[in-house]
Amino acid sequence: MKTSIDKATEGEDYDRVSFLIGLGLAISSSVFIGSSFIIKKLALKKINSLGNTRPSAGGYSYLKQWMWWLGFLTMGIGEAANLVAYAFAPAALVTPLGALSVLVAAVLSAKFLKENLNTYGKIGCLLCIMGSIIFVVHSPKHEEIKLFSELTSKLNPSSSNLELHIIKLYRYIVCLRTLW
């Protein structure tokens, strides 16, 4: 029986189960990594409130804080899940889904750290979600393209209209931001 890695090297299609496992691992990786930032920041704020020297000033008291180690472990689990996801799904799917960790951190920081997310941040989160959906829907089920003719045959102008509009919307937002 061939593994998904063998299929990728031979240019065969990924089966549905491997694809879904890789997708689930990539998304769970983003959740673990995004939440690890919040857990570690909560630990650092607790250390600062106790009057200990900040890590940026040479302090090492965070190493004695169990919550910081929990955040460190959470990040390790997320990175391990990301690594295993590459064995089940194409890299063109797994790599962009790593951006969801920023979204998770932004949402959790608003809830647990009482940080405000401005309008541009909310638009960025929405674009991140839309981009992730586009990547999942249009991600290759076939890993390797060997000829340029194969690439041009896969480019379908009608399927990229949504992506084109999203890119235009993003450019418009960036232009507005530079004007303000």
Automatic annotation (TrEMBL):
Keywords annotated in UniProt: Membrane, Transmembrane, Transmembrane helix
Protein's membrane topology: Multi-pass membrane protein
Major localisation: membrane
Matching InterPro entries: EmrE-like, Mg_trans_NIPA
Pfam family, one: Mg_trans_NIPA
Record localization: Membrane
GO MF entries: magnesium ion transmembrane transporter activity
GO cellular component terms attached to this protein's record: membrane
Membership in a protein family: Belongs to the NIPA family.
Official protein name in the record: Jg13919 protein
Organism expressing this protein natively: Pararge aegeria aegeria
